[in-house]
Amino acid sequence: MVAPKVKTQNLLSRGSALAEAGRLKEAANTFRKATKVDPTCTEAHFNLATILSETGHSCEAIGAWEKVIALSPDILGAHRAFGETLLDYEIPKFEAGSAFKDTGPLNTAIADYRHAIETIPVLRTCHSNIGEIYLNTGKLEEAEKAFTDAAALPENLEDAFSDVGATLNHPGNLKAATAIYQEAMAMAPDYDGDEISEASYLSTNLTFTEHEILLPDGFEVMMEWERPIMERSAEIITVNGGDVLNVGFGMAIIDTAIQQSTLDTHTIIEAHPQVVARAEEWAKDKKGVRIVPSRWQEALKRIGSFDGIYFDTLMPPMIPFMRETPKLLKPGGIFTFFQMMIQFENIEAMAQTGLSFALERMPFEEVSENRYYRLMEKDEQGRFTAPLLIYKK
Ligand SMILES: C[S@@+](CC[C@H](N)C(=O)[O-])C[C@H]1O[C@@H](n2cnc3c(N)ncnc32)[C@H](O)[C@@H]1O
Predict the structure, then answer these.
(1) What are the tens digits of pLDDT across the range 3-43?
(2) Is the pLDDT of residue 128 over 90?
(3) Predicted local distance difference test score (pLDDT) of residue 23
(4) Whole-angstrom distance, CA of residue 358 vs CA of residue 88
(5) Which residues contact 214 (CB under 8 A, 6 or more apart)?
(6) 356 pairs with which residues across the strands?
(7) Is pLDDT of 62 > 60?
(8) Cβ of residue 225 lying under 6 Å from some atom of ligand 1
């Protein structure tokens, strides 16, 4: 009888040969066998996960990547590949009747991923401690290796998520996330994130031009170039007809687009007094429109439920609104929102709602000069894209 270790090694070699020959299905089966023979073999899980990701078997790949990370949380490539696999949940274009993904597996995967990230500082300390022991016992070569291993682990991955807005394209890959951040900063040095508070914004005097809404310091509240995103988002949230809610009136772009559909009611929540006045003027000759002149945080208590919801207030907080969406949507109701980049925190918050989801990356042909645009993601053809995360109850 062949010893399990030898059997695993044989399976790994055979799987690699099959993979090299392009026989990916058989290679996956062989690696799967290896994981059964030795469930603690990281290499077997890693190879299986890689093939499953490459062949588009995202659901099973997530399980395999989770195993890799649980067995060897210091393999950074596994974190990155795992994140990329999560993105493979996307469907190319949302249409009425599109298949949505169940967020259950994504939710579990995100929780495990967070756990893995949190393990990294512990691992770094372990490597450093091992290095200290080797150093004290004069084993300099081993000490150097342990310190190098410790240094290879990222310092502040969590910061990379929250500050950099690292996208799900790059989780676990601090280098790539930092590169995005530095590139964005170089292109848009005047961008200072969400530093303006909601309270100060709501009492600020706004300037309305033909193409934008500006704060006194030139900070852009809403810009004409966002029109294609707004028009596509309006199509998405009106697929059910019925009752539609938009939070944030801005330049009336999305609300004008929403009016192209036949609806029962069209509710708009807007908090800034100058914008409220414009919304009320705009609504005079529109059908079924109700303007709710308050912050959404107060308005939600008495607002009812909807077949379609859009959220774009520019100001944080956004995640508390996301958490309300299961209650605000009618069965089959659709929710989407504006964001420049896919942000891990948003995906995470929405995964926890249990709503099913789809992702559409909307490309832009035209680029206009402004700082937000330059912060957006690009697709493989180098076009800017708007990520539309679409949720369904
Ligand atoms: C970026 S604009 C929305 C643009 C809009 N989607 C359009 O198509 O023109 C953001 C809007 O949200 C409003 N807003 C900000 N905070 C809000 C809050 N807490 N509740 C309701 N509206 C808010 C702002 O006054 C502003 O009009």
Answers:
(1) 778 899 999 999 999 999 999 999 999 999 999 999 999 88
(2) no
(3) 94
(4) 11
(5) 206, 207, 220, 221
(6) 392
(7) yes
(8) no
Any atom of ligand 1 within 6 Å of the Cβ of 321: no
Is residue 252 within 6 Å of ligand 1 at its C-beta?
yes
The distance in angstroms from the start CA to the end CA of the chain is 54
16 vs 338: CA distance, rounded Å? 44
For ligand 1, whether the C-beta of 254 sits within 6 Å is yes
**Which of 209, 214, 222, 259 has most ligand 1 atoms within 8 Å of CB, for mutation?**
222
Domains of the chain and CATH, by start: 198-392 (3.40.50.150)
Which residue's CA is the nearest one to ligand 1's atom 14? 313
Helices (H), 241-337: 253-258, 273-283, 296-299, 319-328
Q: Is 223 close to ligand 1, i.e. is its CB under 6 Å away?
A: no
β-strand pairing of 356-364 with 377-378:
unpaired
Fill in the DSSP letter of residue 292: E
Buried b (16+ CB within 10 A) or exposed e, 79-115: bbbbbbbbbbbbeeebeeebebbebebbbebbebbee
- Contact between 53 and 109 under an 8 Å Cβ cutoff? The reply is no
* Atom 15 (ligand 1) nearest CA: 313
Q: Hey, how many other C-beta atoms are within 10 angstroms of the C-beta on 282?
A: 18
Does any ligand 1 atom lie closer than 6 A to the CB of residue 247?
yes
> Distance from the CA of 385 to the center of ligand 1, in angstroms?
22
| Smallest CA separation from ligand 1 atom 26, residue | 250
- Which of 78-87, 183-192, 226-235, 368-377 is most confident? 226-235
| pLDDT tens digits, 157-203 | 544 444 333 444 444 455 555 555 555 555 555 545 545 688 889 99
Please name the amino acid found at residue 27. Answer: A
Percent of the chain clearing pLDDT 70 (strictly above): 72
**Which of ligand 1's atoms lies nearest the C-alpha of 246?**
6
Question: Ligand 1 pocket, 271 CB below 6 A?
Answer: yes
What's the number of CA atoms in the CB half-sphere (13 Å) around residue 325?
34
Higher-confidence position of 141 and 236: 236
